Structure formats: C-alpha cells, structure tokens
Amino acid sequence: MMMENSILFLLGIPLIGFVLTYFIPKTKEYTIATIVKLVAGSNFVIALFFSINWLIAGSKTIHLKQLTVLKSGTYNFYLDFMADRLSIVYLLFGTLLILLIAIFSQRYLHREEGYKRFFSIFQFFAFGYLLILFSGNFETMFIGWEILGISSFLLIAFYRTRYLPVKNAVKVFSIYRIGDVGLILAMWLSHHLWGHNIAFSELSNVKSLHAVLVNHSTEAFLIGGFIMLTASVKSALFPFSSWLPRAMEGPTPSTAIFYGSLSVHIGAFLLIRTTSYWEDQIFVRLMIVAIGLITLIFANFSARVQSSIKSQIGYASIAQIGIIFIEIAAGFETIALIHITANAFYRTYQLLISPSSVTYKIREQFYHYEQKHQTMEASLPTKVANTFYSLAVREWNLDSNMYRYLWIPLKKIGVALHFLSIRRIAYVIVPFFTLGLILLATHAHLPKWVLQFVPIVFAFIGLLMVLKSFTERRNVMTSWFLVIFNQAFVVLAIAYNEHLSLFELITFSSGTLVAGVIGFSCLWRLKKIEKNVSMDQFQGHVYEHPKITLVFLIACLGVAGFPITPTFIGEDLLFSHIGEEQFILAGLAALSFVIDGIALIRIYSRIFLGPHVKNYHEVAKRSS
Amino acid sequence: MIDSSKTGIPAILENLKHYLPSQAPLKDFIHHNTLHAFQHDSFHEGITKANEIFGYKVYLEIDEYRQAYATGKISPAVLTHIINENVAEDQRSFYNDLLIHGNISSSPMKRIGTVRANWKKTYKVDMDSRVHPSLFRLISSYIDQGISTWNFPVHENGFLASIRSLEENSYSSFFQSKRAKQLLKDPSTTLEQLLHLLLGDEDLVEHYLFDQQFAHPGWSGMVAVLEENPSHLLNLKSVSFTDFVFLECLFEIDVLDDVFGEKWEPMSTFLSKLPTPLFAPLKQTQEQLVFKIWQEAYEWSYYDSVCSSLLQSVHTEKKINLENLSFQAFFCMDDRECSIRRHIEAVNPHCETFGTPGHFNLEFFYQPEGGKFHTKCCPVPAQPFVLIKEVQNNIKKKKDFHFSERNQGLFGGVIMTTIAGWISPFRLALNIIRPTISPLTSSSMKHMDPHSKLVFEGDGLQIENGLQLGFTIEQMTDRLEGLLKSVGLTSHFASIIYMIGHGSTSVNNTHYAGYDCGACSGRPGSVNARLIALIGNHPEVRKRLRERGIDIPFSTRFIGALHDTSRDEITYFDTDQLAVSTLKLHESYEKDFLAAFDYNSKERSRRFMSIQTKDQLASVHSKVKRRTVSLFEPRPELNHATNALAIVGRRAITRSVFLDRRSFLNSYDYRIDPNGDFLAGILNAVAPVAGGINLEYYFSRVDNQQLGAGSKLPHNVVGLIGVTNGIEGDLRTGLPYQMIEVHDPIRLLILVEHDPAVVFSAISRNPATFNWFKEKWVHLIVINSSDNQLYRFENEAFEIYQPHVKLVQEKSITEELFEMTSENISPFIIES
Question: What percent of chain A is modeled with pLDDT above 70?
Fold first, then answer.
C-alpha cells in the first residue's frame, strides 16, 4: 500500500507545487525557487526510496487500483497507475535531472522576464512526465501526453515576444499533434479489440492477448503502426526529426532537460510500454528497425555538418535514439534502458555547457590547428560526398517537406474556402446543421446506406470548417467559431452512428461550450480595447494584456479537449462510438481533432504572442 | 570610410556596409559605438535618424524617465535648466507639462523594409521565412570555425565559387527553379542582372538592398567585417559582401520562380507609389524634443553632482607626502579598476596609484608556447610590428570529452554516450555544489603561464612571419618613457612600482572577450604588464632613460601583475627575481592588496542578489570567486555596467571623491605637458575607447532587442563566431541583457584637468577626436587648473559651468555603505 501511495505522492507533489507557484508574486524569486527545489528534491528522495523498496519487494510490477472517472453503459473511463522496471528507470533519471536543473535554473534565470512562468511550466511538465511513467492505461497516458505537449509549446515559446520562438513552438506543437492522433487511433482500435478500455497490466496475460491479436490481425497491425508513429514523432525520428533542433528556443536549461533528455526519450518509453502489442508482429518490428536505421544514418550525417552547437547536439542525440529504437525492436530492453539513461544525462550536460564551446574550441584550435582535416567522407566520390553534404546541411529537407507536403495542401483547401465569411457560414451552415439534427431525430426511417453515408458527410463538413479556421487570415472571430462548429459537426456525425445519451452529449459539449464562451469574451474584450485585431500577423498583445492572454489560453485548452474539462473524456467517449470498421469516420474525426488543436494554438499565438504591434518599447526583429 | 570613387551598386553596397553592425567574431569582441554610422551628425540628431530610418529605440521609454523624475534621479532644478536651454520662453510651461504627464505617441513607422514588404503585400510570398534558413545555413557552414566535423567543401575562389562548385558537383540542389540554377552556374551573371530581374528599376535598388540586408543585420555585418579583416578567423575563409548579397538575390528569384514559375513580374511593375526614401530629411516633432530634454536632464542630474564633488575636491586638494611613499601602482584606466584603487589607497595611505590604457604603451603580437597563431596585445586599430614569444610554458591543457568530436559518430557515439553519459550527472552535480576552474573556464591565467619566460629583447633584425622578434633597447626606452610621461611620473619613484594589467574569469560565457582588457584587443593584460615591468627593470633601458632625464633609482623595482576583475585576485610575475629586501617589502604590500581585494569584492557584491553583502568579508569574497566558475551564473561580473565618466587628470583631484566604480581614470599631469601633446594622445584613445564602451552600453540598454543581443539564456553558438537565438535566427550583435540591465544609459562625461585653451588645441588636432566632442557623442568638461573653475564644451567653445548642487556631503567609507543599497551611490567627498 505504501508503494501505491508513493506513486500518488510523486504525482501530487509537482501538481501542488504548480498550483502553489501560481499564488506567489512574480518578484518573489526566492520563494518560487524554494518551492520548486522542495518539490523536485522531495520527489527525488521519494523516487529513491520507492525504487529501493521496489527492489527489496522483489521487483514486481506494482499496480494501483483503478480510479473510475466516468461510467456509462459498457463505457468506463478510468485512471490507472502502474510501476515496473521501465517506470523506475525513467523515474530515477528524470527526477534527478529535474532536481539538478531546478537548482541550476534558480540562479541562471535570475531577473529574467518570466521567471515564475518558467518554473510553473517546469513543474507542470514534470507532472505530465511522471503521469506518463506511471500510467497504467492509454487514457491515463494520454492525459500526461497532452500535458507534455502543451507545456512543451509554452516552454519553446518562453520568449513569447520574439517571432522565431513562437513560430517554432507552433511548428513543434503541430508535429506533436500528429503523434497525438496516432495515440487516439491506437486507443480507439484497442478499445474495440477488447471491447473496453484496457489496462497495460492486463496485457501481460499472454495467452488471451495472443488469441485476440491473432484473430484481429489487421487491427493488431494498425495498433502497432499507430504506436510506432506516435513514438517516432515524440522521439524525433525520421521523418519528424526537424522539430527537435527547432524546439531549442527556450533558456538553455529547459532546452537541456526537455529536448536533450526527457521529452525525446518518451517515444522510446511508449514503445517499450506497449511491447506486448507489437512484439509478435515481425513486420512492425522490422519497420521499427528500419526507421531506427534510417534515422541513425541521416541524423548522423546531419550532426556532422551542423555549424551551430545546439543543433549538432540535437542531431547527435537523435542518432542515438535511432539506435535505441533498434535495440528495443530487437528485444534488448535492458541495453536500451542503459543507453537511454546515458544519452539523457550526456546530452543534458552537453547542452548546459554549450556556451563554453567558444572558449574551449577556440583554445583547442589555437594550439592544435591543422589545415586539412581528413574525415571519413573523403573516401566517397566528390559528387556523392557533395550530395550528402548539401542534403545534410538542409537537414534532408525534412523541415521544408513537412511544410510543402503536409501544411501547404491543408492550407490550400482552407484558402479555397475563402468565400466562407462568418455571415455566409451562419446562413448556410446553421440551417444545414439544423436539418442534420432533424434528420437525426427521425433517423430510424432512413435507409441503411444513407445512414452509413451521412456521418461521413457531416464529419467531412466539420473538417472543412476547421481547415477554414486554420487558414483564416482576417477575422479572428470567424476562426474561433469555426472550431466550435467543427466540434458540433463531429458530434452530429457520430450521433448518427449510435445513439448518444444526453448525459454523454453534455459531457462532451459542456467543456467546449463554456470554454467557447470564455474565449469569445476574451476576444471581444480585446477587440474593444485594441480596435483592430487581425490574424494577418503576430500581434503580441500579451505585452499589454497578460491576464486576457492567460484566460484565453485556458479557453483554448478547454475547447481543444485538454484534460481540464469533461470534454476530454467526451472525446474518448465519442471515439468509442465509432465502429471498428468505420475507418473513414475515425480518420476524419481524428484529423478534425488534430487540426482543431493547431487552429486554436494558431489563434492564440497570432493574437497574443510574437513581436508586439506597438513600438513605444523594445520590439524584437523578426529574424530573432 | 566610404569610398566615393565607386558608383552604382558597388557604391550602394559600400554605403550599406557602413551602416551594418561592425562587430567582430566572439573571440575578438571589442566594444564600439553601435551607431557609428550616424556619428557625423550630432548625437540627438543622429540617433533620431537611426530611430526613424531603422526603427531602433534610442532613448529610454517615456515612463522610465518619468519614474526617474519621481524618484529624484532626475533633479527638478536640472530639468528646468535644460528646458530653458532648449525651449523658447513662451512655450516652457507647455513643455514642462508635456514632459511630466503629457500624452506621448508611439514612435513613427520605420522606413526600413517598406519596399521589400511589397512581395508579401502583392504576391503573398513571405520572402524572409523562405530565404533566411538556407542563406544562414550556407554562410554559417562556410565560415564555421570548428563546430562541424565534416566541413564545407571550400573552393579557393571564395564563398560564391564554393557554392557554385558544390552545386555543380552534386545530385541535389539548394535551389528549386531551373533559372536560378542556371544563373548560378553561369559565372558571368552579375548582381545587377539579378536585381534587374527582381526589381526592374534601378531607382529601387538602394532601398531594396537596405531592406534586404537589414532583415538580418547580424549576418550581413559579420560578412562585411570578415571581408574587411579576414584575420579575425583562425581558420581562414575568404568572404565577400557582394557574394553574399548575390546569393540572397538568387534565393529570392528561386522562391518566386518556385511559386509562380518564371511568370512573375518585377517589383517596379506593380509598385505604384514609392515609399519615403530612406535618407530623406526628417520632420521635426515635439516628441523628439521631449526625449532630448529628458535624456539631457537625466544625464546632467548625475554629472552635476560629480562636478560639484570635483570642485570641492580641487579646492581642498590633499597632497600625499612624496618623501614617504610606500609603493606605486599602475592600473588600467578601466572603470572596473576605479574602486580597487580607492581601496588600496585606503589600506595603504602612502601608496600612489596611476591609471593608463592597459596595454602599457606596448604594441605587439604575442605567441604562447605551442600556439599555432599569434594574438594582438594592444588596441585594435594599432598595427604592431613586434612579436613576443613565450617559452617554457608548463601549463597542461586539459580536455573535456563533452566536446569530443567522437560523440556524434556511429560506434564512437554509442560508446562515448554510454560511458561519458554516466559521468555527466556527477560533473553537473559537482559544479552545482562545488564549482571549480575546469577546461570549460575562460580564465585570465590561461593567456600566459606566469612561470614561463618571455623572449622580449631583440636586435631588431630577426624577422618571423614578417614581424620583428622582440623590442630593441631603444624601442623599449621610447615606450617606457612615453608611458611614464603620459601619466606624469618622472620623479619620486617608490621602491616598488606595480604594473597591473587585468583580465577576467568566467564560464559558459560566449562574450568572454568583452570582459578582458579592451586596450589589449580583448585579451587579458598579463603579457603587457609583465613585459613593461621587465622593460622597466632592464639596466640598459634605465641607463638610456637617465640620459633622457628620467632617473629611476637603482633600488626601484617594477613588478608586473594581473588583476582578475571577476575573482578579485592578483597574480604577480617574476617575483623570484627580486632581491631579498625588495621581496620582503613586496610581501608586506601583498597583504595590503589582499585586504583591498576583499573590500573590493564586498563593494561589488552589493549588486549581486545571490550574495549577502552583510556577511563576513572573507565569505563574501569566496562567494564572488565561486560565481565566476559556476556554470549557472550568467553574471560573473557586471563588467562596464554603470560606466559614465572618464577623468583625465592627477589622482590628487579624484583621490578624495567617491565615484562608485563609474569612472575611467586616466592619470595625467598637466604641469609637465604645457602644450597638451600627451593630452592629445590620451584623448585620441579615451574618446573612442571609453566613448565606444559607453555608447555600446547605452544602445544595448535602450534597445536590447535590436541593438543588443537580448537575453543570453537561449543563446546558441554558431560557427564559434557568434550567437543566435535558437537555431534559425540571425546573429545577435551588441550586449546581452545580463550585461546591461543595471546600466543607466547616459553618455560619457570626460573631465580633463588643464587650461581650456590647451584642451581645445589638443582635441582639435585629430578631426575624428574633435568630432566626438563637437557632435556630443561624449560630453567634455575642463577643470581649469589656473582658476579652479569648470568649463563645459558647448557649441565648439568653452563656457563656465556652475553646478546646481552647492555642497557635497562628506562621508567616510565603511562596510555599511555597501550594505545599504544595490543602486548607484551618488558621489561624495571621502572623509579621511
């Protein structure tokens, strides 16, 4: 029992710290730092005792009783916690690094604008990280996953009045969102595979697991694929690697701990945690090996040509993670864990001392300079070597291709919908939606093929709404309402599928509606003060309106289904109503969910972050 | 600067380069006036232009001035005086209201960027976000001094030729469009052609190129600096600014081709109305005057109290008994040495101190043993012809595996990571708990091994790398004579004369060169100090000096030393050569120095939040030392922050004035220089060096985002030459936030002790120097030695200045003084 309680302590302490910090005035650096050090310190000590106890108790998997949050029919949303060797390894190096960085940052960030904000997000991140480590089912893990995503966004955009940090934060958030879809779809399939939300610990019953997986080979394969997608996104594997160096915009210690160690290794964690899902599927294993191998090769070249110290460390780290993935796929879990820990420590320290590279390397050069420097590439034919070189310098076009082949097509669709003004939407969409509701009320009388078809149509319209919202350049209100319309359409689409209870509808919409109204009033108020609030460029209104900014951020999170409102559970609930054969509907709903989040973060960033539109004070250049 | 023989695009580029930041690579970082391009205008006019053309913020925010007024930092009397000087009588009350609570609108829209913005307006193409990443990557990979393991395949004909050959011999390309590739391939393509394709109208070229380059002034400036002075790079790379602009234009064509095919029209076809030309005359506005008045009032409120203190001190000048001298010590004129001189004089009242530029009148290149290069040890503009070599260096150069190139490789990477990775957290924990000097530290002592030997004497005939090996006796004599006369020390030599250079220790500090001695090109002054002492002790030099009328007694010994300004430590050189009696004497003075450094660190600690100034002296000092080697300490010292004054005169007039580490102090005795010959030389250095430091602090403080480097916490080292934010941005120039946050942006006030007429003649000998004073980039006040009055240099003439503050307090310096406040302390007369 004590062990189980320790898990709650480990999770609760950073959360309490996070809440406490909120009430400390920002000028009280010492108090803030003391709280954070106490939190990180006690967490580390508890983690140590916990691990020792665990060893003495025979290194068995610890399972904390399920905590049901919502039950409706066969649907049961519960939180579930567990701890095993994997959690404990991550716990130990994670809490140690968090403690060291907390002490490090106390002085390092002295008098920095946003001192308090930094430590708030820092603790929130720590909470999310620990939640993932101890999560006993996908649902719990997903909460941690979302916390990690949003706190990453906030840390990258820590210098929120400059352009590049904000731009890159949105970029990284968008890529993370792709990973989130993988997780949602894996959850959805897994739900159908077992008929209920399943805890990871139940998977250890090998026999029943094997039987289920063999009977549903497609689903099993897809789950494996989705997990791999999510893991590759989070661990910056090929082809998602370019986000990692771009995430290095915050203060060096946060870059060091999150992008040097904790964040990037979470993908590997997911892979190991879900081993039972894919270990019998040779094809999935081969895919993991292949991706690891490709990553290793290309990241290695990239690291060798980088001319900036942080991106060099970033790519060197990615290359190691490629190897780690191969180790995991090959079944060498212990080796992988040793490798992960070492890589995390090594890269964190390397990043922390990266400013010293000037002193150190210039001195080295002064005493040991040699004109020609033979590298292994010298053995390649010139043309091949040059090709590799120039590709590696461009990071194999990964960043530009992401833009070219992913965002541009989405944007094009959105731009094609430019004729949709808010008025037209109201004229066309509202009646259409009402019609949908009426049809729904009478849907028992519709032919079967229509019933199969209609949800897809509505989900598709919903998707168009959010695409339009995502590309809106003028009216911020249009953008805001479209996101909410999108959710309404997705609900409508799924409602056709299976009968949704009123309770379920309320669960889902309550969060969206309340957050929607709050967000709307924030924007309305801002418009009243500032008159011209356009989406065309970054406005940076946080400079004068930090309070509205904070409230609006919370509203965005609410609408996006972040685990602060019931909408979060509602989302999972909705997905449980999508049949396992309805891939298109699931795909559309998932895509909506992804773009929803991105569109909301885009509104938030464009209105409130970036260089301020007023110039009576220092405003950063766009190239910084 | 500007070569007027050029016309067309070369002339435009030449002019453009002049406006770009001229900051050298990190290892050669030296302070200079950030807005040097506007220096031919008067201060207020120049910076107002910079504001309107480039959008730089050039004053504090209006609320900051008002705040200073409310807290008494700006004195009402001074403000009224400045209003009266600047505003006609009938408008004074209007301006008074406007200044104190009127509504001041935002700055005007900047002119830079208005032409190039049309791509986005008309074509909806975000040029910067598509061009910058490739451009920055190429130039940084090309220049990179040693971060990448696999280097850019450099072609001997420079940057563009290298890219051409890289593109031609490769299966992949940086360009998307055929036309851009073709244009690059053809060596006869000119920049003019590219600009014609883009703009279609010659009249747009100037504004467009300014827009384009000022979208990333950091990189453009770096290229321009390296073209001018390639020797900043150890790993030589030849770059040309024209090549760089060529490449950027080519990328722009590529972007447009990629979006529209080759069917787009040049800018002139859709640009109906031209924006205001960049350099068109400005309109006079009320706001400009408001900021000017506030700034002047801010400055004179401080200067005024300094002036009255000095006047008071001049009237009650305290002479030290020259017959009873203990020792003499030369320090660098650096403002950081201002307080240590005060402390050593307090500890040992019989000593005499001098201030002079820290290269001690020696100009040479220095090559440490084992060094593959030589470094300049004198002011940047000087061109030394002498090489000094170090032999018998016994310092071992330790390595750190965290910087090993092997950490990226395949198998090396795995082994390196898994083994070294387990050591890293212990290293980190150790540095957090007990930081010590490590291979990562930039230590002032690493410049030269104190126990090595310097080869400094030569016959003038031995040449190495085009440099003369060592100084000849005659050259040494000239330099020592010059030094002694410039500070006014030609008789009454004490038995020990310390020559103290300075350097700084810090870790995780990319701007370390800015912490060392500016007069030694951003290196510690150890070699110079040691060398001048060796010269001073040379019997042959002494003999020749005697022939020239300077008789240094046989018993007098010079001792070279290095003061570490961040650690407050001192290292003496060659003390093993001292005679036993001198050594004994030296050992007793060493104790005085130790005590003085304890006090000095206590005084400095009042600005450090992490140290309780009230603690025991020794404990404060050890904490001060500790923060210089802590990885997480972004402020090892505060460097020149708060600098505001430069006093050129005898120590006698400043010795009893408390100046709070805010003054450069250059010793000078008007009595032995009636014509101002030495003075001219001193001011030729003080105005640009101290003035440059001061203005760099000023501009980095008022616009830390555009003229400064922003917070150093997210900085990323690029190519070992500069820093960026994150991995994609432009190079950041100027000073980081952590260096300037406690600085009050006021111009330098230079105070000179002499006759105004002589000073006038001294400053007018060099037009560049005269310009500094005439256009008011520094203020000048003369303390007239004959009538003990102050004369202010205004409108190219001297006028009497009567301070508003009539009587300055007399206080004694106690430890409590430093425990009271972390703010600036107003000048006062030191009770003795």
Answer: 97
Are residues B717 and A355 in contact, defined by beta-carbon separation less than 8 angstroms? yes
Largest CA distance in chain B: 89
Q: What long-range pairs does B228-235 form, CB within 8 A, spacing at least 24?
A: B229/B24, B232/B24, B232/B25, B232/B27, B232/B28, B233/B25, B233/B143, B233/B145, B233/B721, B234/A362, B234/A365, B234/A366, B234/A369, B234/B145, B234/B372, B234/B373, B235/A365, B235/A369, B235/B145, B235/B146
Q: Is A31 on the interface with B (CB under 8 A)?
A: no
A132 has a chain B CB within 8 A of its CB: no
Cβ distance of B741 and A111 shorter than 8 Å: yes
Residues with pLDDT less than 70, chain B: 1-6, 106-107, 396, 405-411
Half-sphere exposure (CA, 13 Å, Cβ side) for A550? 7
Whether the Cβ atoms of residue B248 and residue B212 lie closer than 8 Å to each other = yes
Interface mutation target, options A161, A359, A379, A403, chain B, most CBs of B under 10 Å: A359
Which chain A residues touch B106 with a CB distance below 8 Å?
A: 614-616
Alpha helix locations (H) across A274-308?
275-278, 282-305
**B822, B606 in Cβ contact below 8 A?**
yes
A-B CB pairs within 8 A amount to: 328
Contact B141 A110 (CB under 8 A): no
Q: DSSP string spanning B395-462?
A: ------GGG-GGGSSSHHHHHHHHHHHHHHHHHHHHHHHS----TT-B-GGGGS-TTSEEE-B--S--
Residue B692, judged by CB atoms within 10 A of its CB (0-12, 13-18, 19+), counts as: buried
Cβ partners under 8 Å of residue B271, min gap 6: B115, B118, B204
**Which residue from B424, B512, B729 is facing A345, i.e. has the nearest CB?**
B424
Residue A168, min C-alpha distance to chain B (Å): 9
Give residue-wise pLDDT tens across range A426-463. 787 788 888 888 877 776 667 777 778 888 888 998 99
A368 confidence band (pLDDT: 50, 70, 90): confident
Q: Which residues contact B373 (CB under 8 A, 6 or more apart)?
A: A366, A369, B234, B367
- Residue positions counted in chain A: 624
- Decide if A324 contacts A332 (C-beta within 8 A): no
Q: Which helix (H) or strand (E) holds B34?
A: none
DSSP A47-111: HHHHHHHHHHTTSPPEEEEEEEEEEETTEEEEEEEEE-HHHHHHHHHHHHHHHHHHHHHHHHTTT
The CA-based angle B637-B643-B649, given to 5 degrees, is 120
CB A10 within 8 A of CB A46: yes
- List pLDDT tens digits, range B291-333: 999 999 999 999 999 999 999 999 887 777 778 899 999 999 9
- Other C-beta atoms closer than 10 Å to the C-beta of B595 total 16
Residue B332 has φ and ψ, to the nearest 5°, of -70, 150
How many CB atoms are closer than 10 A to CB B202?
13
* Beta carbons within 10 angstroms of residue A57's beta carbon: 10
Closest to B728 (Cβ–Cβ): which among A164, A300, A383? A164
A positions 436-465 inside 8 Å of B (CB): none
| Cβ-contact A71, A196 below 8 angstroms | no
**CB–CB contact B729 A624 (8 Å):** yes
Structure tokens at B474: 């005659």
Distance from the first to the final alpha carbon of chain B: 51
User: Can you tell me which residue has the tokens 């660190």?
Assistant: B601
Report ipTM for this prediction.
0.94
Question: A394 vs B137: CB contact, 8 Å cut-off?
Answer: yes
CA distances from B542 to B510, B583, B831 (A): 42, 21, 39
